[in-house]
Write a structure and sequence with these properties.
2 copies of one chain form a homodimer. Helices cover 32% and strands 27% of the residues of chain A. Chain A has 5 helices and 12 strands. A 5-stranded antiparallel β-sheet of chain A has the order 10-1-2-11-12, with helices on one face. The first copy, chain A, has a 5-stranded antiparallel β-sheet with strand order 5-6-7-8-9, with helices on one face. In chain A, strand 7 and strand 8 form a beta hairpin. In chain A, helix 1 crosses helix 2 and helix 3 runs antiparallel to helix 4. The longest helix of chain A is centred in the last third of the chain and has 19 residues. Chain A is globular and about 70 Å long.
Chain lengths: 248, 248
């Protein structure tokens, strides 16, 4: 399983992802799910991926190959980031179809993959999309400034409470980490290292704030411990239930 | 959608359920999902239900009818609560199969229902089971003292953090309400009134602590507001991320 999320704030974009992949409980591996493409001073792209690892790796690889081969359309040529989201959806569908001809064995084969695609092309604002396994996509709105893929539910409540458009990048990154911690506690197939980065709007270059936390990282351990302590304290501050009302 | 949960603590059993059902967004209704069966001084049973409303209503109705008709097996005769869980699984399967013959239209028809079944039969300890739509069931363990059905993920993290075997019934009830609040915030089809009750181990009678909170209930409103405030405070107490490390 996987948990990736991205947040669009006034300051820019925050991305966060875990690094655990598994194909059955006996085949657990570590792969970065955060992929970055840069044309210095002109455009920046970050892709987070969830779902079938073969599909998502093939898509990321094809984006690179298309840039190198200077094909008719590639990330370096795109006028709009929305077209890049469309293109990634198409690459994903092509990869999924490759192994779906009638003759191939496909018991339990689930080739689908989801992507979060965010970045900026010079002259346009920062944008953030989610590309579905079906190839289509949605974008963030002012009312809904974050997107999640993979194991999304455990970590959503804290995002709903904290994230606003004017949230600072530090708070947004911290909230993304807390959201990931909640997910890891409830789903053992989401795990470290955890990567979190911030792309500053209009910077258009590769200098980003980036952290990678191994399981034993002192900050990560402190953050998890503090959150657990603070949640308990918060819970203990709640008003107790009123006097019992006997039923009938 | 639905959210129901039950917690087995040393003191007894806590049950909590929302009351919203929907069949499409334009058909939203309110039904209690907490059903109670009592043979004063001898046995107590609480059933929480999620899934197809026709199936779960039919199951609850059949349990009553079997008791009235004094059939070969019914709740009042059961020797073990586990047999009651089995019986509910069988009733559920029978109901689901009723409308699944080959001639009936069944586009999008999902007859499955899940049940949480808890209580006590004189001479045995309190027990808590979850009955799957397939008819089989699992029980709680010391390490995993709670069970959830319906929209389970949003509300799980707080249960993981707070609930232990020696948690008091007041704390367990409050935690169940907080868990339900988190679920309601993230899923609009889970909604009030919220029912929460506590069955005291070995009491074997109907006197239970029971609360029913309408959306405008003062305690419910205070609890929700306090939790939102306290979570934000807790979040603000977390250590900020260290100095940024530029990514090469």
């Amino acid at each position: 399983m996987t948990y990736c999320l991205a947040i669009k704030i006034d300051e820019g974009l925050v991305f966060c992802s875990d690094s655990r992949t598994n194909a059955g409980a006996d085949q657990v591996s570590t792969y970065s799910k955060m992929h970055r493409f840069s044309v210095e001073g002109d455009r920046q792209l970050v892709i987070l991926s969830a779902g079938n690892l073969a599909t998502s790796q093939a898509v990321v690889s094809q984006i690179e190959r298309d840039m190198q081969a200077d094909t008719d359309f590639h990330f370096g040529k795109a006028e709009y980031l929305e077209d890049v989201a469309d293109y990634i959806g198409q690459l994903s569908l092509e990869q999924q179809k490759k192994f779906l001809d009638d003759d191939s064995p496909k018991a339990g084969y689930k080739p689908g993959a989801s992507f979060i695609v965010g970045g900026q092309i010079k002259g346009s604002p920062v944008e953030l999309f989610m590309v579905y396994p079906q190839g289509n996509h949605i974008r963030t709105s002012e009312q809904h400034p974050f997107l999640q893929i993979g194991e999304t539910k455990y970590g959503k409540p804290i995002l709903d409470r904290i994230i606003r458009n004017d949230t600072s990048h530090e708070v947004a990154m911290r909230c993304a980490l807390v959201s990931t911690d909640s997910t890891m506690r409830s789903n053992a197939t989401v795990g470290p290292p955890i990567e979190v980065m911030f792309y500053k709007a209009d910077s258009l270059d590769e200098t980003a704030i980036y952290h990678r936390y191994e399981e034993s990282d002192p900050y990560w351990l402190t953050l998890r411990k503090s959150w657990d302590d603070e949640i308990r304290k918060a819970f203990n501050m709640l008003p107790p239930l009123e006097d019992p009302v006997p039923r009938d």
